[in-house]
Amino acid sequence: MVKKVEIYKEILVSEEELDKRLDELAEEITESYKNSEKELLVVGILRGAVIFMTNLVTRMDLDLTMDFMAVSSYGGSSVSSGVVRILKDLEEGIKDKDVLIVEDIIDTGLTLDYLIRNLKDRGANSIKIATLLDKPNRRKVNVDVDFVGFKIPDEFVVGYGLDYNQKYRNLPFIAALKEEVYS
Questions:
Q1: Residue 159 pLDDT more than 70?
Q2: Looking at the annotation, which residues are catalytic?
């Protein structure tokens, strides 16, 4: 068995930084939606956003419902294919609701651009985006992100829900994966 410390080259975001930023993001989101008369539906993008989303919503002082979508543009690769597939769709209707999409990471923006267009077509009142991590240097499509946890360099990262081949999600921090692990 490989020790987890052997798979990453550096910690980019510590547990303490995550905890502090989650409090700040929850406050920003609460402030943004506190006067809305529409129902708030928080949509987590499986699987990577689960840890971020659950820790975020428990800190938000809002009435909300939650649902999940599973989408893929990576498969087993470390590079996005650009082809978005919905693997699990919403169970909740979104017509006339305020929708907050919670993502683990925004890279090229292709997946998120597709999701935004798809959810707008379903009649959402509004759509906002909260992401734990943003890689603006990798963007291929311009997407407006309302709530950003951390901007990070162009590194392949794992931890706090993010994975490589479904592994390393349970690291309590965000780390840059050693290239030899995924190449």
A1: yes
A2: 107
